[in-house]
Amino acid sequence: MPEERPKSTEAPATGRSPGTPGDPGDGSVATLSAGIAVASVTALAVLGPLLGISPWLIALAAGGALVAITVDGVRFGGRGGHLLAEALPGGQARLRRIAIHEAGHSLLAECNDLPIRQVLVGSLACLRAGLNVNGSTEFEPPSHAKLAAEDLRRWSRVLQAGIAAETLLYGSSRGGGDDRALLGRLWGLSGFDVATAQLEQRRARREVEQLLRRERDQLESRAEQLLAAAPRLLR
């Protein structure tokens, strides 16, 4: 296999997680950041005069907030908005969804004897690791690019487990695009035709769904452990 290290990102949640789970809510985070900025400026405009704050300072603050949002979106892909969203009171629920996604990968990797290098939950943890995602499960790469059918079935179960875990708990998945793309590359590099690859992946997905339903308590327990270890701003 190429030098690329297999990993699930939400993604990035990826998944990505809900940000890798496929970046859950890139748009919603941008909206949240803008909403916070507007609300802050509005409050400042109303309360500023009562507190003796100069209108010029209010205008400067408004301009600075808009510039910060623009720079974050263009230069950092909205990562600052994700960090802010995860630090706010509702951020725990957001991180839990990412943790569920990564816990699915982790649980199935354990069941299929695929070694894991690290599991990261949240934008801050990923940022510290140099990853521009919201969640990541990094696996030991295969020793060869061309894998046997049974090895591909194992990877099919593990890489689809994040999406299946999210769907089980939340009714849908917000991410997993990176997982599906990596899985497609593994099957393609191994020389299997598209029809066979799709059939095997659907079969693996059903197996994963059945296992996660049976082991739901363990899935949620593992996710809570990941959530407890996830770093957040101001914590």
Q: Any low-confidence stretches, pLDDT <50, length ≥5?
A: 1-5, 8-19, 21-34, 65-78
| Alpha plus pi helix count | 9
Look at the helices and sheets and give the structural class: mainly alpha
Q: What distance separates the N and C termini?
A: 40 Å
- Report the order of strands and helices: EEEHHHHEHEHHHH
Q: What is the average of the pLDDT values?
A: 76
CATH class assignment of the largest domain: Mainly Alpha
Looking at CATH, the homologous superfamily of the largest domain is Peptidase M41
| Count of folded domains | 2
* CATH fold type of the largest domain: Methane Monooxygenase Hydroxylase, Chain G, domain 1
Query: Strand count, sense and closure of the main sheet?
Result: 3 strands, antiparallel
Given the C-alpha coordinates, what overall shape results? elongated
- Tell me how many strands there are: 5
Structure description:
Helix content is 65%, strand content 9%. The strands form two sheets. The chain has a three-stranded antiparallel β-sheet with strand order 1-5-4. It has a two-stranded parallel ribbon with strand order 2-3. Helix 4 packs across helix 9. The chain is elongated. The two termini are 40 Å apart. Mean pLDDT is 76; it is low at 1-5, 8-19, 21-34 and 65-78. The chain folds into two domains: 7-23 and 95-229, Peptidase M41 (Methane Monooxygenase Hydroxylase, Chain G, domain 1, Up-down Bundle); 26-87, no CATH class. The protein is mainly α and 235 residues long. The chain has helices spanning 26-51, 55-75, 79-87, 91-111, 123-128, 149-170, 177-189, 194-214, 216-229; strands at 7-8, 10-12, 15-20, 116-121, 135-139. The chain is built from nine helices and five strands, in the order βββααααβαβαααα.
